[in-house]
Amino acid sequence: MAEPAEEPVAAPAPAVRFASDRPRSKQVPLEWPLEFGGRLYDSITIRRCTGTEISEYVIATAAGQDVMPPVVDCPKEVYDALDDDDLYEVDKVVRDFLPRRFREATEPTPEVSGSTSTKSATPSAEVAPK
């Protein structure tokens, strides 16, 4: 009796990776660390996102879901509980990692009075292309 033929093993799909040497994330140390779910959060990672992650975020917020921006790598409960000084430091770094379409939407804009106004640094569905 002939032995069954072995099926060829498919080669793993090639992985896509960013080829730039520019950093795609940054750790922001917390002055006021938090514990959540048995884990200590003494820093928050801020990272650049893919187009798919941003699209999914925009769709979720447009649908009224209360979701974390994918640029901030921590649970929503941790982000919501950050000390205001830590939140300020995190938000400063977030701006550097936002995609251009959101960064430009958060630029200070001159008002008729000559003063400036800053828009929220958190991406929203309002600035998403249709």
How would you describe this structure to a colleague?
This protein is of the alpha+beta class and 130 residues long. Mean pLDDT is 83; it is low at 116-121 and 123-130. It is built from 4 helices and 5 strands. It has a domain at 25-110. It has a 3-stranded antiparallel sheet with strand order 1-2-3. The chain has a two-stranded antiparallel sheet with strand order 4-5. A hairpin with a 5-residue loop joins strand 4 and strand 5 (116-117).
Salient structural properties:
130 residues, 3-stranded antiparallel β-sheet, 4 helices, 5 strands, disordered C terminus
Shape: elongated
Label the structural class.
Answer: alpha+beta
Q: Give the proportion of residues in helices.
A: 25-40%
Largest sheet, strands/sense/barrel: 3 strands, antiparallel
Mean pLDDT level:
83
> How do the strands of the widest beta sheet line up side by side?
1-2-3
Give the H and E element order.
EEHEHHHEE
Number of strands: 5
Question: How large, in whole angstroms, is the Cα Rg?
Answer: 21 Å
The CA-CA distance between the termini, in Å, is 63 Å
